[in-house]
Amino acid sequence: MLDPFPELLDDLLQRQRSCWEAGAQIRISDLLQHISASSITADIQLDLIYHEFVLRSEFGDAPNIADYVKEYPQLAGALTALFEVHEALDFRFQAAANPSASSNLLNDSPGSRIHQFRLVDRLGEGTFGTVWRAWDESLERHVALKVPRQTILPFSARRQFIREARAIARVNHRNIVAVFEVVANDSEVYIVSELINGCNLRAFCQGKPLKPHVAAQICHLVAKALGAAHDAGVIHRDLKPQNVLIDQQGTPFLTDFGLAINASATVPEGEASIAGTPAYMSPEQTSGERTIDKRTDIFSLGVVFFELLAGCRPTEPMAEQAARQMPDELSQICSRALQVDREKRYPTAHAMAEDIAKWIASQDLDPRERAARHSFYWRIARRGWQVLAVALAIVVGIVLVGTRERVATEGKMQRVCIATLPPGASVYAFPLDSYSGEPVPGSRIAFRRGSTLRASLPPGDYLLVTVLDDKRFHEVYRHVPAGDENLPGAFNHLKWKRLGNGEIELPQIRIPSSGIENSMALFGSHDHFTMGSSKLPDCPEHPRRIAAFYMDTHEVSMEEYSQQSGRIPVDTRSKYRSAQHAVLLNYNQAVQFAESIGKRLPDEGEFELAASQATIPESFPASDAANFEPVGSAEDQTATIPAVRGLLSNVAEWTSSAGVPYPSGTVPGSPLASGVFRDHRIVRGGSQKVIEGADLSGRLDRNPHDRIAVSPHAVKPGLGFRCVRSARPRLLESDFSKNL
C-alpha cells in the first residue's frame, strides 16, 4: 500500500507514546497543531485515536469509545469499525488481565510455539507482519504462518489483515496459495497457509528476461488464477513479481491479498485512495479513483508479462527496443493488457489467459502452419507497440508516479553504472535544471535493476533517489560527464570514472539504516508557503509548495564532523572555538558530509520555512565573532519537538540552492540576474557581515528571507551548515517542492 506520509505517522505515534510515558498526557489536537492540514489523512487520525485509547488504558484510565465518536463525528463509521476490530483482536489487554491466555506471538522466535505450530525460520516480512516456516505438529507438515510484527496493530494494519483473510478464504484455485486456517480471537491472530518451497518471481528472474515460452507459461497460469479470484469477487490490487511465488518445479502461485477489495465495492472511505506498488499500478489506481474493477489487475499483469519478456518495465529506458525482440503475438497481448483506456483492455483475465494459451499451442505447430495463422492483426503488433510505448511513457508515466520515466534523447547519451550498499535497491535519476539547479520531477529516469544498476543518461547533474524494498532510502547528487570531460571532481557528487568499455561508473550509494531521523525535527508539508520578500529584488514574494522534511536541531559541530569523517577540519578562527562549535566547510565538503550520514543539505525554501517558525530573540550578541555559540545553545528556536535552534543566530548556513533569482528567471534589478553567480550557492541565516564573522550586531543581519550567493569553494569564519532529510523518498511530483 502506498502510504502518503508513513514517516509522519511513525513520528507522531512515537512522540505520542513518549509524552504519555513522560507524564504529559498530550491530546491529539495538540500533537497535530504544527502539522499542515493537507498532511493529516483520515488514516493518521484513526491511528492516533486508537493509539491514545491504548495508552489511556495502559496508564490506568478507562477510555469511553462513545466519547471518541462524539469528538470525531466525521469518523464515526470508521471508529465504530475500529473498536469492533479492537474487541476481537486485542492481545495486550487480554494478556494483562489473564496472563495464562497470553499468546506466543509476543515472543515469536525460532523454536517458539503458537498452539501446534513450531516456528522454524523467518521467510519474509511485509507491511502487516512476518511470514514463518512452521512445523504443524498435529498434521506433521510444514506450513507458512503469517503473524503480526507488533502486539498492538494500528487500525490500518488490522483492516489489512482482516481483508486479506476474508479475500483468500473466498478463492480456491490450484495456482493461488491455499489457506488452511485463519485465527482471529481475543488473544491470537495468524494465518496458516500452504508452504511454497521456492522463491518469488522477482528472485526467479534475477533481473533478466525469461525465454518467451517460460514467461508465457508463468503468466498463463497467473492469469487463470487471477480469473478465479475475479470470479469469486476479489480484486487483488497489488499484482507484482514479489507476490507471485515459484516452486521448485517452476509452477507459479499468486499470493498476498492484503490490499484486495470486493469486486462490487469501492475503495473504503478513510483509506488512502492510492494503494499498490507504483510501478505496477493501473492509471485508474494511481489517479486515486475509488471505483476500480478487475481490469486494474489485468493492467498489472500486463506490466509483469512485459517485464518477464523484456527484462524491464514498459516505461523504462530501452522498453521500445526490447519490445521489438518479443514474438509478435506476445507483444500484442502485452499491448492490449496495458491500454490506458481500460475499455480497450482484455475484459477478463480468462480472455488474456486464452490468448497466451493460443500462442503456447502454436509453438507446437509446423512452421508453415504457424506462419499462415499470422493475420494482419498480428503482423502490425510490433508496429503498434511503438505507438503504445509512447502513450504509456506520456500517460502511464505521468499518472503512475507523477513523472515520466523517459528515454532521454537530447545530447549525447552516456551509459552509466552504479552500485548500492546494500544491493538490490531501485534507483531513479532526476536531472537538475541547468539554470535553477532544482530537480526536474517530470524527467525521471529509472536505472535497470541488477547487481550493478545501469541507465543511459545525457551529461549533466542529477539527484539520485535510491529505495530498498524495506523502505530505507537515500537521496544523493551525482555528475555524468560529457564526452570531452577528462577531469573528475574530488567529491562523490562530482566524482566519476570512465571504464574500458566506455561506461561511466559513479560512486557507490550507501543507504543508511532506518531511524536516523529520530533525533531530527519534522516540518510538515505546506501547500502554499509565502516565500521571499517584497524588499528583495532577487527573491520577491511568491507562493511555494514545500514537501515534508526532517531537519537537524543544530548545525554540524567540529566534533561530529571529526567523528564521522576521521578528519580534523581546518578552522579559520580556532582561537575562539571549541569542538562544540559549528564546523566551517566549503559547500562541496558539506554536501559530501551530509551524504555520508544519510542526509542532504536543505534547499532555501526548506530553510526559510523552518526559520520563519523560529522565535526570534529580542537582541543578538553585539560584539565580535568570539560570540558565535556552541551548536544547540542559541536562543532562537522553533516550536517543533524537538526544537530547532540557531536558524536566526550563530553562524549563517549553506543551502543547496543555486545563486540565481528566485523563483527561476531574470528579475529586473536583481544583482544575481546576470547569471554569473549560477555556480555559487545560496547562504541563509545571516548577512554578509555574519558570514565574514565581523559583526553580529542586529536583527537586520538575521532576516529569515535574506539570501547571499557564496562561492562553493569558500570557507568563511561565520558559515556552517546543518542537514535535512526528506520525510519520504521523492518519487512522485508531489514529493518535490515547487513554485506555484
Number of helical runs? 21
Q: What is the structural class?
A: alpha+beta
Say what the CATH topology of the largest domain is: paralog of FGE (formylglycine-generating enzyme)
Architecture of the largest domain, according to CATH? Alpha-Beta Complex
The largest sheet, given as strand count, sense and whether it forms a barrel, is: 6 strands, antiparallel
CATH class type of the largest domain? Alpha Beta
CATH superfamily of the largest domain: paralog of FGE (formylglycine-generating enzyme)
Outline the low-pLDDT stretches: 1-6, 88-107, 268-273, 365-411, 572-576, 620-626
Morphology: globular
Proportion of residues in extended strands:
15-25%
Mean pLDDT across the residues is: 76
Nearest-angstrom radius of gyration?
A: 28 Å
Strand order of the largest sheet: 1-2-3-4-6-5
- Helicity level: 25-40%
- Rounded to the nearest angstrom, the distance between the terminal CA atoms is 29 Å
- Count of the domains: 5
Instruction: Tell how many strands the DSSP assignment holds.
Output: 33
